[in-house]
Prior knowledge:
The complex is a heterodimer of chains A (about 290) and B (about 160).
Chain A: E1 2-6, H1 10-22, E2 29-33, H2 36-46, E3 50-53, H3 62-71, E4 77-82, H4 87-95, E5 100-103, H5 108-124, E6 133-135, H6 138-149, E7 154-157, E8 168-174, E9 180-186, H7 188-198, H8 203-211, H9 217-230, E10 234-236, E11 243-250, H10 255-261, E12 267-275, E13 279-287
Parallel strand pairs in A: 1-2, 1-3, 3-4, 4-5
Antiparallel strand pairs in A: 6-10, 7-12, 8-9, 8-11, 9-13, 12-13
Chain B: H1 7-22, E1 27-28, E2 41-49, E3 53-61, H2 62-73, H3 82-104, E4 109-110, E5 114-116, E6 128-138, E7 141-150
Antiparallel strand pairs in B: 1-6, 2-3, 2-4, 2-5, 3-7, 6-7
Amino acid sequence: MKFLIVDDSKAMRNMVQRTLKQAGYDGHQYEFAENGMQALELVKSYQPDLVLSDWHMPVMNGLEFLKQVKAEGLDVNVGMITTEHSEESITTALDAGALFLVCKPFTPEQLSEAILSVFDTAEESETSSTSSYEFAGHDRMIQMISSVYNLKLNAAPFPHSKPDAFPYMLGMYSEAQGGLRAMVLLDNALACFLGAQQTSNSRISAYDELASSSFSQDDHDICTDILGSLASLFSGKSGEKLELRTTHLITTPLAKLDAMMASPSATHLDYMVEVPGYGAGRLLITTF
Amino acid sequence: MDVTLSDTKLGEIVAHSWNIMLGIDLSNTDTPVDDSGNEKYVTGCISIVGGIKYAVFLDCSLPLLKHATALMFDMGEDEITDEELEDALGELTNMAGGAIQQTIDSNSQLSLPVVTDARSHTLKIPATRKLVETKMTHDKGDLLITLVRGKDARKPRGPK
């Protein structure tokens, strides 16, 4: 995913990027602009998936930038990160085309939830073609993961339930140009066991990590790899494959995410996956 | 009518911003402000303009500001330039102003922040009076937070 962070304060640009990384957007692409004018140029040349813009900036402020994006017919998602809190300001920004407003100061969870809302919107805008994507099936999934990662995995279907332990890793899948079509969630237990196995760490260290609810960089990397590989298992009726658009480290309950999972168009395929010699964790698949 | 905002609440609002964005825990202190000039302070100021004009001052001791700036830029305190110190305090003042604005007058407008390397008692906004002030501390240094408001316009004299 390509982010463009727009703020006249270098300190704030740095902090927004750091918070995004804390929210699970590590390993994504980042570009920066000091004002709306620079941002406009970068929207055209860099073509970001999401612009996060301040409101008050010299040369061209965030609101003027939004209006110019609309006037030029540029197809880009824009969210505002600002000290503007008033209802009037929020309405003004949303009317001008902002998808969300995050008020400073903000937490990684608040930023993550706001970004998830971008995908929610994409889903809502394409309800006519929901449920047109299918999952290839758990046998193929296990075969694929086992062969790619040289793992021996056993999976068993598991009754669907909301994720109840944090943190966990979430992958969101869509067509090249389209709304959200599938989500895959790897819970912390599965991440810890996979991470430990891949790095030849002991089972005890995996359980210690799990007990402390931590999520190591190794866990993050293996989960990101697996989520990327799983994209090939989703295919549409016309054979079009999905792409992994974003990965998120979810650290607290998010109302938006719960609502997406409870959507009437959602179909769930949930598994208990065993990493031999370590333990079992959950892999939850939701398609729309 | 003056806004009701205690010194404790003023401190809490600013401490919340610093904690969320920087992980810095500020706590209240009753220690008097050091006016001797021995400790260097940097001041940020932002105006809140609505039905009544307010301004927020952050007087931050240099060691604390360096610590905050280093966290904001992910760099060592000895690598920080004056420009980065000003940038960081400007943004901290902006955030404090936004949070205080939300509490006292959400329909007002926030100005752009101003930063000076002088102590607040040499940076003054004419025709204002102090509403509330609180001092916060951290093992790196102190932060003095002051909220002032514009004086009411003089009422025209009516007939005796």
